[in-house]
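Q: My labmate handed me this sequence with no annotations at all. I'd like to see what the chain might look like in three dimensions before we decide whether it's worth expressing. Could you predict it?
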Amino acid sequence: MIQEQPKNPLHGLTLVAIMTELVEAYGFEDLSQRIPIRCFTHDPSIQSSLKFLRRTPWAREKVEGLYLWHLREQNRRTKSPQSM
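A: Here is what I predict for the chain of 84 residues:
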């Protein structure tokens, strides 16, 4: 039985989608400053990062946390009143 999670923003997202969006938004250099893990600092690529993150739960939690923060910041920016 598949359990629906309508309030979970990570539900239905793959790690590939999360990493792709974070790399597009921040780049590996900024990611390595926000989350100092070797797969972001030494010869970074999405594929090598995915391999590491799939084997390392604590690092994946940090990446997912950054992604959730990124979503909140995007929502905050779009909902804030624009000054004219």
